[in-house]
Write a sequence for this structure.
């Protein structure tokens, strides 16, 4: 059997760049946490920590209500 390669642990983008708050008015920034169907990606995929994942999720939902981000893509 071959030894399994070690997976590189993801680090939180928001913690590394010292971003404490997630701005719901910044649509371009929030799009990095959405997939092509405009669904919120899980933290396992994005690599953000639990605290920031909750903030990102809330910010995306607020941006959708204000029509900054679409609910679905066509």
């Amino acid at each position: 059997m071959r030894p399994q390669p070690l997976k590189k642990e993801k680090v939180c983008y928001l913690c590394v760049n010292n971003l404490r708050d997630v701005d719901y008015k910044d649509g371009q920034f929030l799009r990095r946490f959405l997939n092509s169907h405009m669904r919120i990606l899980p933290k396992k995929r994005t690599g953000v920590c639990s605290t920031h994942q909750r903030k990102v999720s809330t910010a995306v939902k607020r941006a959708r209500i204000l029509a900054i981000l679409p609910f679905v893509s066509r």
Q: What stands out?
A: Residues 13-65 form a domain with the 30s Ribosomal Protein S18 fold (CATH 4.10.640.10). The first helix runs from residue 13 to 16.
